[in-house]
Amino acid sequence: MHRTAKVGLAVVVDLVALPACFLIAMILRGGDLQLAKQFGPGSYLLVAVLTIAAFWLSDLYRAVIRFIDHRLLTLTGLALAIAVLCAYLTLVILNEARFPRSALAIYWFIAFSYVVMSRIGVRKLLRSKRGPWAGNSLAVAIYGAGEAGARLAQTMRDGDDYRPLCFFDDKRALNDRTVAGLRVFHTSRLVELGAALGIRTIVIALPAAAPERLRELMQRLGQAGVPTKILTRLVDLADDKAHDKAALRDAIREIKFEDLLGRPPVPPRLDLFARCVRGKGVLVTGAGGSIGSELCRQIVTLSPARLHLIDHSEYALYTIRQELAARFPDLPIHAHLGSVCNADLVERVLAAGGIDTIYHAAAYKHVPLVETNIVEGLRNNVLGAQIIAAGAARHGVQTCVLISSDKAVRPTNIMGASKRIAELIFQAAAARAGGGAGKRGGNSGGNGGGKGAGNYAPGSTGNGAGTTFCMVRFGNVLGSSGSVIPLFQRQITRGGPVTITHPEVSRYFMLIPEAAQLVIQAGAMAKGGDVFVLDMGEPVRILDLARTMIAMHGLTERTPQQPGGDIEIQFVGLFPGEKLHEELLTDGTVFPSEHPRIMRMKESALRPSVLETCITCLMMACETHERGPIESMVKAIVSEYMPSTPVPLPPAPVEEPAPAGLIRKFVPFRI
């Protein structure tokens, strides 16, 4: 029926029922029909009209009966009481002695009872005709028998997607009670009842739960081997829009990494965010990679004058360029296919592109691959940084930002050492730029091309613009290429095993958007030679991450104690050069920055002339392809570099699954 027709039908029904309510009140007051006969039909109709007017003012007729709740009924009862009080005052003013005043109070009880019973009855009828018991609805259990859970259960009954079966809650006082028509069971019975009731999904109805609480719940609920979702916001039963199918699906969704990060994602400061981008020419190296592509996505939203992309992967470069061009067809986007180690390519881009800001994300970053291909790893990461830094100074680029890694702190592998050398290159470039910033045409230029640096010879003449060089250092980025998340996903999909290097290995984690925003803001805050580090909270164990992912898929871990589990976790030993625990800070001095969650560091650096000589010797050592001389030169440049020794695995069994209530920290993820 049309909405107007439904309202009209409700008014007509009330217009018939309310005079009958008043008649019953008069009979109860007088004990027979004698008192009721003293007043004609007009009196009863007048009372009904006044009552309907009160109902209209209380929004009773504008409410959707299928979603009517106690709040609206309470408001309706209050409006009816006001109408009765007005009628009583009118009788007093008119000094109408024949009319029994107490009949009005009786009428209020009868009329309100009629409203409640009629509306609740219609609501129950409408809900019974809908599809909560349809065969294609998802059988769910709700964790949390509080207000949010009760409202969620009622809302689920209104739709076709979910069929609530029961509640689970940790409160002993609620065990075997009934909430919103559903039985409440203690969480300890989750495994037992999960299979018995045919529960397909568990929905956590704790919208305001802290990340620590969600982490604990995920571990506990994962023991049932049932997928878990989360209620992200309260569903208002009085709001018709909230019961749209799409709205309910949005309110109940998969748990995302942001929900379980253990710290709130770090929001960008808008005044910093656009300072080095808006209206400027921007170059992103490694633009097709995980961080580089996200940088590009963030940059195009900040209205740059032009955007240049460099990547040696044809497919990656094509993909990101097509994506950006589709979103911002009017933005000049120039894609350059090639390596940052190609000095001629970098020279052409910088000479002709009008570049104001460079974000240098191009690097080899996979520790095991670089450890077994040290020559190419060093050439790409070191020589690429050297060419970019020298070119930025030579062409008067305003800001040049290097994307570094936590593995550069006291490195134990070639990849981390190469990133630390790249940091030293940018520190040396900052020292040169700072020294020549005030003299037009002074020696602000390259910190050296070294051997193989092409056109960028040491001491090349810059334009004196004083390029600001800085570095951004962060930990593992979830979802990036080479991240453990895609690896674990594939292994779980194949049925296992999930492979982990060591049971105690831990890492810092951050979101891809967080990483890109940190890079962009760092350039705006840099003063020259700064190392910026994001406050990433506590490191997390990869073992906990794996167990959480297994639970998120609705599966259980297979252990000697639980041989019937779905997925086995195997420990394969640390890779060559891999650390058990990463670090973000060295012994350098830490300062606050303009952003409260971003730290600024000043670290020791080599003199530019010494660094140039060492890098030249390092490139010469790479020509020999002998690991000993190469590692010796790396050690000469990065004194903290110490190749790791194998860490033995503890004897099996490594560790039993953590019992409920003793959950260790883990890293969440996005499915």
Task: Give the secondary structure arrangement, pairings included.
Blueprint: H1 3-30, H2 34-37, H3 41-57, H4 70-94, H5 102-128, E1 138-143, H6 147-158, E2 162-169, E3 178-179, E4 182-186, H7 190-196, E5 201-204, H8 211-221, E6 228-231, H9 245-251, E7 252-254, H10 257-260, H11 270-273, E8 281-285, H12 290-300, E9 306-311, H13 314-327, E10 333-337, H14 343-353, E11 357-360, H15 367-372, H16 374-394, E12 399-405, H17 414-436, E13 468-474, E14 476-478, H18 484-493, E15 498-500, E16 506-507, E17 509-511, H19 512-525, E18 530-534, E19 540-541, H20 542-552, E20 557-558, E21 567-571, E22 589-592, E23 598-602, H21 608-624, H22 627-637
Helix pairs in contact: 1-3, 1-5, 3-4, 4-5, 8-20, 12-19, 14-16, 16-17, 16-21, 18-20, 21-22
Account of the protein in words:
The protein is α/β, with parallel strands linked by helices and 671 residues long. It has 3 domains: 3-128, no CATH class; 138-255, NAD(P)-binding Rossmann-like Domain (Rossmann fold, 3-Layer(aba) Sandwich); 270-477 and 509-538 and 581-637, NAD(P)-binding Rossmann-like Domain (Rossmann fold), CATH 3.40.50.720. The strands form 5 sheets. Strands 10-9-8-11-12-13-18-23-22 form a 9-stranded mixed sheet, with helices on both faces. It has a 7-stranded mixed sheet with strand order 3-4-2-1-5-6-7, sandwiched between helices. Helix 8 packs across helix 20 (542-552) and helix 21 (608-624) runs antiparallel to helix 22. The radius of gyration is 35 Å and the shape is elongated. The protein starts with a helix and ends in a 34-residue tail after the last helix.
